[in-house]
Amino acid sequence: MATSNTETPPTYNENLPVLYDETFRGIWGSDFGVASMGNRANLIGYLEHYAPTTDGSFAICIAGGKGVVISKALYESIPEEHRPPLDTSHTQPVAFTFGGSQTAIGSTIIPVILKNADTGKLFKIKIYALVLENLLMGMFIGQGSAGTASQEWSREGVAHFFNFGHEDIRVKGC
Predict the structure, then answer these.
(1) Which of 44, 118, 125, 130 has the fewest C-beta atoms under 10 angstroms from its C-beta?
(2) Which neighbouring-strand residues pair with 33?
């Protein structure tokens, strides 16, 4: 959107409703894994704060596996003054089903903005994620993690359903 690196970074409305927050949920598991062959994005998320040279959007892959992992590049794209703290004591391995693993450089609680496909309204979730040095996309969410419930395929594409304990919320994929 903006062209100058000296401009104040844009932001989404910080007063968006937070429908899910893992800040105090004790998500610190030991068996994080990515089970996606192609790392194909099937959802677009938005950062609350982002560099003025971008629109704040990033690719998300929801697939098999467990937990949430984000790329170091996505984490560092959040302006430093708004970047959530990185807990470097959480340096556990993340297995990739189709070979190999990476050791996380830390963990964080990252705010993600999504759009309700039925109402058109934006909402925020705050999810626990391990940060990986060399993840091929912005974020990977293992099916069943971060409130993900199911997927629905149609001629219009994929829709993801999130359940945060009170109702399913449909988010249109890409």
Answers:
(1) 118
(2) 66, 95
Residues in the chain: 174
Nearest-angstrom CA–CA distance, 26 and 160: 24
Residue 33: count of CB within 10 angstroms of its CB = 17
**How far apart are the C-alpha atoms of 40 and 137, rounded to whole Å?**
8
Of 126, 130, 136, 128, the closest CA to residue 105 belongs to 130
**Sign for the pseudo-dihedral over CA of 61, 160, 67, 13:** positive
Alpha helices by DSSP H, the chain: 72-77
172 contacts 159 by C-beta, under 8 angstroms: yes
Q: Which value, to the nearest 10 degrees, does the dihedral of the CA atoms of residues 141, 166, 111, 71 take? A: 0
Residue 113 neighbours by CB under 8 Å, 6+ apart: 12, 16, 45, 46, 47, 48, 56, 122, 123, 124
Q: Could you report the per-residue pLDDT of 49-63, keeping only the tens digit for each?
A: 988 888 899 999 998
Angle, CA 138 vertex, CA 97 and CA 87 arms, to 5°:
85
| pLDDT tens per residue across span 118-169 | 999 999 999 999 999 999 889 999 877 888 878 888 887 888 999 888 788 9
Give residue 61's identity as a one-letter amino acid code.
C
**Rounded to 10 degrees, what is the CA torsion of 8, 52, 126, 105?**
-110
